[in-house]
Write a structure and sequence with these properties.
Largest sheet: 18 strands, mixed
Number of domains: 2
CATH superfamily of the largest domain: Diaminopimelate Epimerase, Chain A, domain 1
Number of helices: 4
Low-confidence stretches: none
Helix content: 10-25%
Order of helices and strands: EEHEEEHEEEEEEHEEEHEEEE
Shape: globular
CATH architecture of the largest domain: Roll
């Protein structure tokens, strides 16, 4: 079974072309095996690039623990690059079917290859029951949660997948690696949640680290960056166009005031291809 390793600012996934190859019979188990960084290919998860009846392609995304997620912004950019670069649909604007619906992507092409992608991520989801979370408010805004004596205020947003965003003076390993996994599995989040820790430099610039649901800390999270900008605007910290610095690189996030859509722009990189025994 042929696979392609790709990443969006270090958020790396293993991609399977299901246009030209079979669907794996057990994607969760395959995701766990291939994502292992010691005994597998290594990655934050597995993404299937599939035919779609209503878009140029369909993306299915499985975390490193085998759980299926609704969306992945960095993964979506890489899917768009794969679809264009490998001749599945060669046009400057593509539509990709995801767990949150069909999203439109615009491609920046250089010498026949996609280098950067802008994704229309759609409207942020602010209704608590749709995020989902049992915290109060629509959206829950700066709601305190106590974790082992550490109290942090979280603003919850969905970009098709759930996010809990907290703004801190300084991001530390203790916050991300100890608090992050406990917030992910907090009972206030019935489907678990991604957790973003944000240091604000100025209204147009910030730093972010993320604990991703099902994968642990990753170098980047596109939906998380989008959710964090929405949370920052709602709490008066951010302008509507923000450069977000993540461990793997930068994303440009724009929450358009006119029609309420969030746009994410960033690179997509193909690293290598290989063969995995069996499916």
């Amino acid at each position: 079974m042929r696979f392609t390793k790709m990443h969006g600012i270090g958020n790396d996934y293993i991609y399977l072309d299901c246009f030209h190859g079979p669907m794996p019979h057990d994607p969760p188990a395959l995701a766990r095996a291939m994502s292992d960084r010691h005994f597998g290919v290594g990655g934050d998860g597995l993404i299937l690039i599939c035919p779609s009846q209503k878009a140029d392609a369909r993306m299915r995304m499985f975390n490193a623990d085998g759980s299926e997620s609704e969306m992945c912004g960095n993964g979506l950019r890489c899917v768009a690059k794969f679809v264009y670069d490998h001749g599945i649909a060669v046009k400057p604007q593509l539509t990709i079917e995801t767990g949150r619906g069909v999203l439109t992507v615009d491609l920046e092409v250089h010498q026949g290859k996609v280098e950067r992608v802008t994704v229309d991520m759609g409207e942020p989801i602010l209704q608590a029951s749709d995020i989902p979370t049992t915290l109060p408010g629509h959206p829950p805004t700066e709601v305190p949660i106590d974790i082992d004596g550490t109290t942090l205020a979280f603003t919850c947003i969905s970009m098709g997948n759930p996010h809990a965003v907290t703004f801190v003076e300084k991001i530390t390993d203790d916050l991300v690696l100890r608090i992050g996994p406990k917030v992910e599995k907090h009972p206030a989040f019935p489907r678990r949640t991604n957790v973003e820790f944000i240091e604000v430099y100025r209204p147009e610039e910030a730093r972010m680290r993320v604990w991703e649901r099902g994968s642990g800390e990753t170098l980047a999270c596109g939906t998380g960056a989008c959710a964090s900008v929405v949370a920052g605007v709602l709490t008066g910290r951010f302008a509507r166009r923000v450069t977000m610095h993540l461990l793997g690189g930068d994303l440009q996030i724009d929450w358009n005031e006119t029609h309420n859509h969030v746009y994410m722009t960033g690179p997509a990189v193909e690293v290598f291809t290989g063969e995995w025994p069996g499916a």
